[in-house]
Structures are given as structure tokens and as C-alpha cells.
Amino acid sequence: MKRVHEIVNPVVMGNEESMYELFAHLRDEEPVAYFDHPDFEPFWVLTRHQDIKHVSQKNDVFINNPRTIIVQRAFEQMLLEQFGTRNGLETLIHMDNPKHRELRGVTREWFKPSPIGRLTPMIESIAKEHVDKMQALGGTCDFVSDISLHYPLRVIMSIIGVEPEEEGMMLKLTQELFGSEDPEQGRGGDLSDRMSVLMDFFAYFKNVVEDRKKNPSDDLASVLANAMVGGKPMEELDQISYFIITATAGHDTTSATIGGGLKALMEFPDQLRKLQEDPSLLKSAAKEMIRWVSPVRHMMRTCTEDVEFHGQKVRSGESLALWYPSANRDARAIANPDSFDVTRDNREQLAFGYGGHMCLGQHLAVLEVECFFRELLPRLESIELAGDPQWVRAVFVGGLKSLPVRYKLN
């Protein structure tokens, strides 16, 4: 029986066990599956590592516009009417060359390893604040809602230049955006509620742009607000879209990785001991956590010519959904993919994407994860689950929303 229709079910995708069971089935039985549903424009589903990597390498054959993530047909129409595109606010993930190359260049220097490395003392300080908070909570907490949601948020807001008192609002908007299908996180059940979340983001960052144009400083907000593209000031819609993707993806995905990473260390206690005995493994452990969680579930590409996968013809103009968590558990490309291994060489993992659209913030994400566990693990004497973990019901970006733990810190 074909099961590809389950790929848009937030209940299936909002549970680690059911999501990976579905991916295993699709990789083996339906590696190139056609999704046709009255609520969505049709698309093809790719779940094997080699296919997803191949598509990601060929940005001229498989383009990001006009569809970048899976949304309902009716919402695509609303975005088209509001913004003039089916993607709505056009961020870096929605763009093709040459525009993508030009706008990516605006912050490329900011996100290179050397400039990111200079942020280490600031990130270490924020990591210590949050491990200290764990200690102050007295040995029990919900690690996600108390710790892992807030630590990367503080980091990226510091980099952008958002005031600490506005972080709660930014967290709520991000959860409403990425968790729109989750009854505990979405703003409401109507598509208009999703649009109102986007418009709230737009209004907030419009004010930030105007402020940094008048009062520039050394933060990333000032870089974006005063950027020149092709010899002209960056267009306002591009600026605000840039802010939104940086502010949301810049913390939510890292939060998911840290929460899922701690859960993995509890499930694989030998790996926890290995890290505590050899902290030099923390960087590779951070990359393994990112593979293990793969918080960005999918992206879409549209074919500019007829192509073929495993004997199945995909025609020009048709769209493909690339499923990164599935690629990162594909034994055809990754040895023992269902084992969490902090010594793994993760050059083949695709959690950051691949090719020209590889995540701009990848070095920052690895550093944040590494710094947090570098602070936590030497102080951690014991840790165990204190309740059942829960996941966000989400098809695009997902991870844990609750991880009750009991622990002892020194």
C-alpha cells in the first residue's frame, strides 16, 4: 500500500518513531513517490541520500522558485495575493541565482568560520548562564522549555541586535511560524492566522530596519539595514525577509538540535561517557547531533527540464520534496545510521543541505552546540528522563517541544 500521503500528516511527522518508520518504508518501497492530494499542488517525494544530494548539486536544473516548502494550495494562493509570489516573503532559501548569490554575499563574511570563531567568548558566557540556570532549578526541569529554547535564541538575538526584553515575543512568533500545525504552538486553525504571523514579523523587522538606518551600530541588523546590492540599497522586502530567516532558523533549529542531542546522550550513555572523558570530541559530537535531529525536514525544488530517478520520469515544471532526516538515516550512504556516534565522520550528512544553498549559519550552529555541551558535560554527574518526551507536530521544521529530565550537576 502506498503511504506517501502520510508525509504531510503533522501527527506522523511530529513523532520520532513514526516519522523514521515512514522514511524507512519510502526509501525501500517508494523512493520516488508522487504525492497528489486535493489540498496541495502535486509534487514528488525523494527520500534517498544519493537522490537528494544529486538534486542539491544542480541548482540550474532544480530551482527554488516558485515552491520552496510544502504549504496548502489555499495558503499558496494567499501568499501570491499578498506578496506576489507563492513563497510569500522571499528569503535566501526561496531564491535562485543570480539574486541568491548577490544577497547571500551580504552576510557571507559574517558567517565564515573566522568571524564566527570570534563570537566564542560571548557564546560561552551565554552557555554558562543557561547551565547555571539548570543548576538553580534544583535537579529537575523541562530541558526544552526551560533551557534549549532560550540559549540559541539569546545568541542569535545578540548577534542581530534584538533587545533581551523582546526575546519572548520573538520566540512566540517563531513557534507560531514553524509550529503552525501544532495545536499547542500554532496561533489558530485558519490559514489567515498563519498570514497574520508573517505580517507581525514584517511589522517588527520593518521598524528594526528603519532604526538601524538612522542609528547604525556593529550588529548584524545594521549590516542588513544598510546593505547595498548591485550598487543599490537592498529592497525593503528582501531586507525584512532576510531578518526573518536569520532570526527564526538561527535559533529554532539549534534549539531542536540541543534538545535532541541531550536525549540522544541519555539513550546512548556510552557516548555520553566518551564525551566526558574526551572533550576533544565535542565538535564531531555537535555535528552528529545535527545529523541525528535533522531539524529542517524538507525543502522543495522545481525541475527546469525532464529528469529521471530510478526509472521514474519527472517532467519539467514538476516539483520535488527533499527529505533530509531520511537522507541522514539512509544506510546506502551512511554506515550504521541509526546509531548515535560522537566519533562519526559526518561529511556525508545533509542536515545543512548541500551545494550552493548549504546553510549559511552552519558554523554558528556547530559552535553553539559545542559550547553548550562543553559547559554542561564536565558538571553533569547524572541525568535521566523524568517524563515522556514530546515533539512539535510539524512538517517543515521540527524537534522536541518537551523533555522532562532529572539530573545532578556539580
Topology readout:
Elements: H1 10-13, H2 16-29, E1 32-37, E2 40-46, H3 49-57, E3 62-63, H4 73-83, H5 99-107, H6 113-117, H7 120-136, E4 140-142, H8 143-148, H9 150-160, H10 167-178, H11 191-214, H12 220-225, E5 228-229, E6 232-233, H13 236-267, H14 269-277, H15 282-293, E7 298-303, E8 307-309, E9 312-314, E10 319-323, H16 324-327, H17 362-376, E11 380-385, E12 390-391, E13 400-402, E14 404-409
Parallel strand pairs: 2-10
Antiparallel strand pairs: 1-2, 3-7, 4-14, 5-6, 7-10, 8-9, 11-14, 12-13
Helix pairs in contact: 7-9, 7-17, 9-13, 11-13, 13-14, 13-15, 13-17, 15-17
Average of the residue pLDDT scores: 93
What is the CATH top level name?
Mainly Alpha
Q: In percent terms, what proportion of residues is strand?
A: 5-15%
Distance separating the two termini: 53 Å
Give a short account of the largest sheet. Answer: 5 strands, mixed
Question: Which architecture name does CATH use?
Answer: Orthogonal Bundle
- What CATH calls the topology is Cytochrome p450
Rg (CA only): 21 Å
For the record, what is the CATH homologous superfamily label? Answer: Cytochrome P450
What is the overall silhouette? globular
Per DSSP, the total helix count is: 17
Quantity of strands, as a count:
14
Helix content: 40-55%
Strand order of the largest sheet: 1-2-10-7-3
What ranges have pLDDT less than 50 throughout 5 or more consecutive residues?
none
Question: Which secondary-structure class do the elements indicate?
Answer: alpha+beta
| Number of structural units classed as domains | 1
